[in-house]
């Protein structure tokens, strides 16, 4: 198999393993946790074992150190005894003072702590006993005697013993050979000619307090010039013993002071570890039972010392393995557990993230497919052609409307260049851009025909290439409709001009005959004077009133025709000052009250139309009030996009059935001759405010006054001021 073939297989294998790991991530995490916990347990055991091995080595070293210390200390005591033997052998007779001087100069207790003293026990035969006792008494010890009393073949009375204090004086004259344990040690020393340790004894120096078990170390002294090669010869030649008594606890305390502070041990005489054979217990005095101790390390060592076998039982104290050493294995376990849990959480998190990613990928794939289907459905059902182009500007998709508009089949459309669909080239964008442009181009059908279209192009980059989506809208029908609209606008402009001409004729040409009729009536009344009958005079006055009403009607008709069509410039208007000026020009009864309430805003608006509306509303409230002492209040409310001007009075009110009719042209609620009203004031206000995007509202109840609310827009919607000029200009550029 070649390398090129093995790479895909390896890649597929890795992918399958990754899929398997993702599918089994939970079990894998638990499996790895179990393995890591096992590794942590092994590491903890190994570290604990290592710490224990180190402690064991240290324990063995301390035990060996203690053994050496005991042996060295006993060897030092042996040297002390040999020094005493040398002193005795170097002189024919050593006095008590010389023995004391030797002891004091040697400073045994300072350099050899634990020794109770150094003495000399003389061997006295039975026939020499009395002479020996008398010689000691002659030295100043009148009460001296060999103890215990009784006849024996041989005595070994203690003669010299230093320090000769009160405790050692209790042993002065004691026959050690009379006691079995001491005698056995002394016989063994004679037989070997070497220092010998006795078994467990109670020293005669002991009192009732602080009783300790003890032992003695004997070194025999032989008569000079006597053969001592055999045991019998040594027995015959022995003259005494240089010895040292030991209180065991004092001795071991001195040895242990610099050793084994963290180890307890018990010394047994012989090989049996019984209470009777217990020579020393470092844990407590011999009078108490040793406490049970679960020691980490225990070792029993035999020790042969100067003809005597000891057994030493060593035990480590509870703190032998220090807290720091124990903390090492605990730290290993803790760190291991922390790493195990962290690894478990990481692997579990990876698994959860993998599952979440897969779920998210499936959902995104499903949503993408759904969006793709929706996009496909939208594009397929869209009435406008939709085309997708690749970076080379070739068609990669076209919806059914595209095929219908351009006359291509699906197979013919895909791969077609954009230059075959549009007369002009499309605007290009940088490769990294993502934007939308609008343009108007001529499109080319498959049969060569063209049609105008407005196109919207959206560019984006999918990471590999720049793509473009084009939405094409055929504007052939729109252009036809636009032409009709322009034609209608021209016709409306012409109609408006005709209306303006009619209004001008109505207000000027009709006003001249009315003026002539009024003059004729005035002349008739002047010429006839009082000769005219009363009825005829009343008819003339009625005629003049009708002429005045007709003139007002013509003025209002002209104003209505121009409402909303004559504009001034937008300026900053102080509405409070505007209302105040209107109040100053009012013709009202003297008792009539007019006033303002609240805050009035300052805004940029058309001053003249606003002033016209407010003046007509205020005049309307005054003129239609049923009392001369009535009240008219003007207020303003800021409503965001609206400024609401409120004109309210306490007049007779308007019945609900008439409230919609008051805004109709030539509509008045009273008799035509009762007020000088043409019925067009509110119609003019309504037309004016609605022209600029506002509205007017009426709130009233019969007998409770009337409230007009003028909703004036904060932003003025300006109508076309010169529609016919705009249409003419547009028509001039059209083909």
Question: Nutshell version of this structure?
Answer:
This protein has 735 residues and is an alpha+beta fold. It contains 19 helices and 21 strands.
Keywords:
disordered N terminus; HATPase_C_sf; 21 strands; 5-stranded antiparallel beta sheet; phosphorelay sensor kinase activity; Beta-Lactamase; transmembrane; disordered C terminus; transferase; elongated; 19 helices; 735 residues; alpha+beta
β-strand amount? 15-25%
Give the tally of β-strands: 21
The major β-sheet equals:
5 strands, antiparallel
Percent of residues in helices comes to: 40-55%
Q: How many structural domains are formed by the residues?
A: 5
Which parts are unreliable, with pLDDT below 50 for 5 consecutive residues or more?
A: 1-7, 286-290, 721-735
Q: In which order are the strands of the major sheet placed?
A: 2-1-5-4-3
In one word, what is the shape?
elongated
Chain-averaged pLDDT:
80
How many distinct helices? Answer: 19
Q: Going by CATH, what is the homologous superfamily of the largest domain? A: CHASE domain
CATH class of the largest domain: Alpha Beta
Structural class: alpha+beta
> Nearest-angstrom radius of gyration?
69 Å
CATH architecture call of the largest domain: 2-Layer Sandwich
CATH topology of the largest domain, which one? Beta-Lactamase
| Terminus-to-terminus distance | 77 Å
């Amino acid at each position: 198999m070649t390398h090129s073939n093995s790479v895909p297989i390896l890649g597929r294998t890795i992918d399958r393993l990754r899929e398997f790991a993702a599918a089994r991530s939970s079990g894998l995490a638990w499996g790895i946790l179990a393995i890591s916990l096992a590794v942590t347990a092994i590491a903890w055991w190994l570290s604990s074992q290592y710490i224990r091995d180190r402690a064991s080595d240290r324990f063995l070293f301390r035990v060996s150190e203690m053994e050496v210390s005991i042996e060295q200390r006993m060897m030092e005591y042996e040297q002390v005894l040999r020094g005493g033997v040398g002193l005795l052998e170097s002189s024919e007779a050593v006095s008590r003072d010389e023995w004391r001087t030797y002891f004091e100069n040697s400073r045994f207790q300072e350099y050899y702590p634990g020794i109770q003293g150094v003495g000399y026990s003389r061997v006295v035969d039975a026939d020499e006993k009395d002479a020996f006792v008398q010689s000691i008494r002659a030295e100043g010890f009148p009460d001296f005697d060999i103890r215990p009393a009784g006849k024996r073949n041989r005595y070994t009375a203690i003669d010299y013993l230093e320090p000769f204090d009160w405790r050692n004086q209790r042993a002065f004259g004691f026959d050690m050979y009379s006691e079995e344990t001491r005698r056995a040690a002394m016989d063994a020393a004679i037989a070997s000619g070497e220092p010998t340790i006795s078994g467990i004894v109670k020293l005669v120096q002991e009192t009732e307090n602080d009783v300790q078990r003890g032992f003695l170390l004997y070194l025999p002294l032989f008569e000079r010039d006597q053969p001592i090669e055999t045991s019998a010869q040594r027995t015959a030649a022995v003259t005494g013993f240089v010895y040292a008594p030991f209180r065991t606890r004092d001795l071991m305390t001195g040895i242990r002071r610099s050793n084994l502070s963290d180890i307890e041990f018990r010394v047994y005489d012989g090989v049996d570890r019984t209470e009777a054979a217990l020579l020393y217990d470092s844990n407590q005095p011999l009078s108490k039972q040793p406490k049970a101790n679960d020691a980490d390390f225990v070792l029993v060592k035999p020790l042969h010392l100067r003809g005597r076998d000891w057994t030493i039982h060593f035990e480590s104290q509870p703190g032998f393995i220090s807290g720091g050493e124990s903390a090492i294995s605990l730290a290993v376990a803790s760190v291991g557990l922390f790493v195990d849990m962290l690894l478990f959480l990481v692997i579990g998190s990876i698994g959860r993230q993998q599952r979440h990613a897969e779920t998210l990928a499936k959902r995104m794939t499903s949503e993408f497919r759904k969006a793709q289907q929706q996009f496909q459905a939208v594009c397929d059902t869209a009435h406008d052609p939709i085309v997708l182009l690749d970076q080379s500007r070739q068609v990669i998709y076209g919806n059914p409307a595209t095929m219908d508009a351009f006359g291509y089949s699906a197979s013919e459309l895909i791969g077609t260049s954009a230059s075959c669909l549009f007369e002009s080239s499309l605007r290009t964008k940088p490769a990294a851009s993502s934007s939308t442009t609008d343009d108007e181009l001529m499109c080319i059908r498959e049969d060569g025909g063209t049609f105008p279209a407005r196109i919207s192009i959206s560019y984006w980059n999918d990471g590999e290439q720049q793509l473009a989506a084009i939405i094409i809208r055929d504007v052939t029908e729109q252009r036809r409709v636009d032409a009709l609209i322009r034609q209608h606008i021209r016709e409306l402009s012409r109609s408006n001009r005709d209306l303006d001409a009619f209004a001008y004729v109505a207000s000027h040409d009709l006003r001249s005959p009315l003026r002539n009729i009024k003059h004729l009536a005035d002349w008739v009344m002047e010429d006839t004077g009082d000769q005219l009958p009363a009825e005829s005079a009343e008819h003339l006055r009625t005629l003049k009133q009708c002429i005045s009403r007709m003139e007002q009607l013509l003025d209002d008709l002209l104003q209505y025709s121009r409402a909303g069509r004559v504009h001034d410039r937008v300026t900053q208007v102080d509405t409070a000052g505007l209302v105040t000026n209107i109040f100053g020009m009012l013709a009202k009864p003297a008792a009539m009250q007019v006033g303002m309430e609240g805050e009035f805003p300052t805004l940029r608006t058309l001053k003249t139309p606003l002033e016209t509306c407010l003046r007509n509303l205020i005049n309307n409230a005054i003129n239609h009030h049923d009392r001369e002492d009535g009240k008219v209040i003007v207020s303003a409310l800021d409503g965001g996009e609206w400024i609401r001007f409120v004109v309210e009075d306490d007049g007779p009110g308007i019945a609900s059935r008439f409230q919609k009719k008051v805004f109709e042209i030539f509509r008045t609620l009273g008799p035509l001759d009762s007020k000088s009203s043409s019925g067009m004031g509110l119609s003019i206000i309504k037309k004016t405010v609605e022209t600029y995007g506002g509205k007017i509202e009426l709130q009233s109840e019969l007998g409770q006054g009337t409230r007009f609310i003028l909703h004036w827009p904060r932003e003025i919607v300006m109508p076309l001021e010169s529609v016919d000029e705009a249409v003419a200009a547009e028509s001039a550029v059209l083909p």
